[in-house]
Amino acid sequence: MNKVEGLHHLAITTADIKEQIEFFTDKLGMELVALYWMHGVENTFHGFLRLNDESSVALVHNPQIGEISSELGRTHAGNPAANCAPGLVQHIALRVKGEEELMAMKDRLRSKGVPVIGPKDHGFCKSIYFAGPEHLTLELSYSEEPIDARAWIDPEVVALAGISAEELAQYKQSSNYLDEGGSILQPGAHAPGPHMANYPSGIYERALSVSDAQMLAMSENEPPVKVS
Predict the structure, then answer these.
(1) Facing residues of 120 across strands?
(2) What is the tens place of the pLDDT at every residue in 132-176?
(3) Judging by beta carbons within 10 Å of its beta carbon (0-12, 13-18, 19+), is residue 65 exposed, middle or buried?
């Protein structure tokens, strides 16, 4: 059974958090619901823009981010058909309810000076495309029914991707796993991984050596403003 049910938040780094907040609130009509010092991260802001009660677009900002150069075709795709480096977000597609909402958002964006390409009908979804600040490539889409794997898994592409018939059958269904109530011990820094990277020396290893109970006890969970 798939226990991952949707998007909680998608985090975007930014050198200008005000510009991103302005874009997502004014151009897309979203609401800023959180802006605070990012927990456990020095000199860094964390912002959350509401998609719904359970999903957000999140922003991460500190002064050092602005010192990292953007390079189209490497750090950013720049458009929904271009390349960027492996492991990066090529484009971000946000969901709208249906045709009426998609057309309304197309008009909203264009009325505020944002060029929009589309709509395009992809069969299982209909989409419009546009740019966000700092070379974000964005899409708004809706689907009227779930994707039918029988129609949309191309045997030619399966073969070119090196996927066998047995592997395909496995990929098409959620893998079984018997829950053990969170009792599995941390694999450690020498486990096969993948592993998170770019930590200062020794920090990742120390984090993995801390018990789950100790990590939870170190949580920062108080909001910055007391609401009576």
Answers:
(1) 127
(2) 999 999 999 999 999 999 999 999 999 999 999 999 999 998 888
(3) middle
Report pLDDT digits (tens) over 83-99. Answer: 999 999 999 999 999 99
Structure tokens at 28: 């897309």
The whole-angstrom separation of Cα 172 and Cα 174 is 7
For the chain, domains (ranges, CATH) are: 8-68 (3.10.180.10), 72-146 (3.10.180.10)
Residue 73, both tokens: 């075709």
Burial 113-131 (b: 16+ CB within 10 A, else e): ebebebbeeeeebbbbbbb
Mean pLDDT across 196-216: 93
Distance CA 148, CA 124 (A): 8
